[in-house]
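Lab meeting notes turned into a lecture example. A postdoc, R.K., suggested we walk through two folding results consecutively so the class can see how the record format repeats. The first protein's sequence and structure tokens come next.
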Amino acid sequence: MDKNSIFGNFNIEEITVGMEVSYSQTITDADVKCFAGISGDHNPVHMSDEYAQKSRFQKRIAHGLMSASYFSALFGTKIPGPGCVYVAQSLNFKKPVYLNDTVTAIVTVTNVDIKKRRVFFKTICKVKNKIVIDGEAELYVP
């Protein structure tokens, strides 16, 4: 199955182990400022060039949860699709994401429990083919 042709509204019986979809977005200054406004996280490592230059990162970094939020976009629009609900998500932040990096979020089905209506996923975000976030997710499919 062409992973780019998948667009939502799967019955749980149609979801199979190995199905994978991705979403990419380039992180801009405006994105970071909007995310700070929405989340309330105005940490200067995200907001201030001067502060970030003195940090271990040496320049501003995006909020880790901004990149992780792209998983939600995939779940709600692709697999499982509209109506699904997050049950759990683990996240391991491996590397920073800088402004102007292009983040690619990838979710891969690892298990389907039709009886409990749960779908399990491996979740990763990459920048320049390097993993910056990995984890696992569990979704309920109504």
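The second example is placed directly after the first for contrast:
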Amino acid sequence: MLVVDAKELTKCYGTFTAVNGISFSIEQGECFGFLGPNGAGKTTVMGVIHCFMPPTSGEVRVFGIDVSADPGGIKARLGVMPQDDNLDPDLSVLENLVVYARYFDIPKKRGALLAAELLAFVELTDKAAVKIGDLSGGMKRRLLLARALINTPELLILDEPTVGLDPHSRHAVWEKLRHLREKGTTLILTTHYMEEAEKICDRVAIMDSGRIITVDSPHHLMEAHGGSLEDVYLKLTGRSLAD
């Protein structure tokens, strides 16, 4: 079953084309990654998928529903972990989850139970009463992951889920994502970390300048082109991800 099906997706901002006629599909239970440097169009694609912005042209269907036809119905069934920290600094760790649950019409009592379960899942139970400003960067990323799961989503969208984290914190997030994938949750992520794509993605779409260069598994890409994913990207685009 296809969870996401995009055909000739284009997104323009005035005269600038951020995403230029890309097509791709994502299967249920798959971990699919968009790989590329800043400015490649990855975050824009994610924004269209989770109905944050409409496509300029082309067709994108999520759960078989056109993103322009029923964005509310789609949003109710997915979770989003943004790249930026947008947690409420005036609330405690637990309160951030309970308040967010109300956006999905989850009763307060049920929301509190879900929040406690999710804090245990991301290993933040002992930080429940702590204010956001007192958390480390790694703790904030794990809390954003917990918040994205509050409505038990069928599809989880993660925009640079481990950006700025040290190796230990990065691996802790990867462990949680692997667990979710094993439970059947469909994952879509953007990343410019080669190791991240190799470790957790079933397939990756290599993007450059708003276009998809190729889609394949990390293993097949490295086998076909030789070297690491960094080497593959350099061979296919003529530049490194650091550019």
